[in-house]
Amino acid sequence: MSPHNEPGPTGAAGPRSDFAFPFRADRRGRTAHARHSEHVYDLIEQLLFTSPGERVMRPDFGCGLLDLVFAQNSPEILSTLELSVHAALQRLLGDLIEVDALDITGEDTVVRVRLSYVVRSDGVRREDVFEGRAAA
User: Fold this and answer.
1) Confidence (pLDDT) at 91
2) Three-state SS across 107-118?
3) Residue 101, strand partner residues
4) What's the pLDDT tens digit per position in 27-77?
5) What are phi and psi of 72, to 5 degrees?
């Protein structure tokens, strides 16, 4: 199946769409939607830059990368952080993606995550860069 002809919520063939993130109205005043690949990207971004405990109904959701922006930048911390983020991606989004490679870098108030992954629904390999900035 092509990404534009994914199974719908009822399993019937047809275009699949998910709610856009952040939640907003489209130009017709309806709930904005995103293609599945965009939705997966949005979910990864949310997971990376949400701190555990930030979501009341899902306290285990998140990686807390922005909490570590001002931490000392050592190879040990980055290695531990990469293992932690990889585990969170696998645990919380493992049904949607398969992580191939992950690289985290931090400088000043910016955290940059380079992620290579496969979207399970269509087998497409993607390489994306996610960037988060800590509040000053």
Assistant:
1) 94
2) ECCEEEEEEEEE
3) 116
4) 898 888 888 888 899 999 999 999 888 889 999 999 878 777 666 667 777
5) -60, 135
Question: What Rg, from alpha-carbon coordinates, does the chain have?
Answer: 16
The pLDDT value given to residue 30: 86
Q: At what angle do helices 75-93 and 36-49 cross, to 10 degrees?
A: 130
Backbone angles phi, psi at 129, to 5 degrees: -115, 125
- The backbone torsions φ and ψ at residue 39, rounded to the nearest 5 degrees and listed phi first, read -65, -45
pLDDT tens, position by position, 99-134: 999 999 877 778 899 999 999 999 999 999 999 887
66: exposed, middle or buried (Cβ count in 10 Å: 0-12, 13-18, 19+): buried
d(CA 76, CA 82): 10
Q: Is 17 helix (H, G, I), strand (E, B) or coil?
A: strand
Residue 111: other Cβ atoms inside 10 A: 23
In the chain, the amino acid numbered 16 is R
Hunting for tokens 């919380």 — which residue is that?
92
Rounded to an integer, what distance in angstroms lies between the CA atom of residue 38 and that of residue 19?
10
**Residue holding tokens 């911390």?**
77
pLDDT at 4 over 50: no
